[in-house]
Amino acid sequence: MELRTHISVQNLNVFYGNEQALKNITLDIPDKNITVIIGPSGCGKTTLLKSFNRLIDSIDGVKVSGKVLVDGENIFDPKVEVTRIRKKMGLLSQKPYPLPMSIYDNIAYGPRIHGIKDKKRLDEIVEHYLKESGLWNEIKDRLHSPASRLSVGQQQRLCLARGLAVEPEIILGDEPTSALDPKSSQRIEHRFLVLKKQYTIVIVTHILRQAKRLANYVVFLYLGELIEHGPAEDVFNNPKEEMTKEYIKGIIS
Amino acid sequence: MDRRKIEENIFKSLMLASTFIILSSLVIILITVIVNGLPAMNLAMITQTPKGGYYLGKEGGILNAIIGSLYLAGGATFLAILISLPVVLYLNVYAKKGSRLVIFTRFSFDVLWGVPSIVYGAFGFTIMLFLGVRASLLGGIIAVSLLILPIMSRAMDEVIRMIPEELLDASYALGATRFETALKVVTRQAMPGILTAVLIAFGRGIGDAASVIFTAGFSDYIPYSLLRPAATLPLAIFFQLGTPFPEVQNRAYASAFILTVIILIISIVSRILTRRFTKHIVK
Question: Is 1.10.3720.10 the CATH classification of the domain at B44-278?
Answer without folding.
Answer: yes
